[in-house]
């Protein structure tokens, strides 16, 4: 099994919320660390704030700048929903009149094998970052999750090779993935 970090590719579109001041969701956007919020969620308006070199192609997955990950279109939701839920919430956003969905993984795994991870301090804040991941053996990884207490990456989203295969098979575009761990190595 392989595990990948997934982000929305800035080669396509980056979106951001218009204004959440006074909206009940505001606290969730700051504390988006695996907490289920769907029952209290109110749809937020979003807008495209950056278009990369592939901006003429509408992406299925979009970077959510200033938030916590990525959002997917309705068509990507149709493909991914059965695989990703109940491991994440799909929270509606209004992107210039179109409903899209912010991904909120609600599974946080205590899966880092700290003794075998390779870390490095990066200036200017000298934050510890993992440069080579080692995950605990024998765990069953859900299709999407977050890693508990990961230094400097509290909002990173991780997917398994099962999700990558579905993304590729269905020609979903707009994301970047980085393999972080292979159980066979």
Kindly report the average pLDDT value: 87
**Euclidean distance between termini CA atoms:** 10 Å
Proportion of beta-strand residues:
35-45%
Helix content: 10-25%
Total of helices: 3
Structural class: mainly beta
Order of SSEs, N→C?
Answer: EEHEEEHEEEEEEEHE
- Whole-angstrom Rg: 16 Å
The count of strands amounts to 13
- What strand order characterises the main sheet? 2-3-6-7-5-4
Shape: globular
Biggest sheet architecture: 6 strands, mixed, barrel
List low-confidence stretches. Answer: none
Task: Provide a descriptive summary of the structure in words.
This protein has 185 residues and is mostly beta strands. 14% of the residues lie in helices and 40% in strands. It has 3 helices and 13 strands, in the order E-E-H-E-E-E-H-E-E-E-E-E-E-E-H-E. The chain has a 6-stranded mixed β-barrel with strand order 2-3-6-7-5-4. A 5-stranded mixed β-sheet has the order 8-11-12-1-13. Strand 9 (118-122) and strand 10 (127-132) form a beta hairpin. The longest helix is centred in the middle third of the chain and has 11 residues, at 74-84. The termini are close together. 32% of the residues are buried.
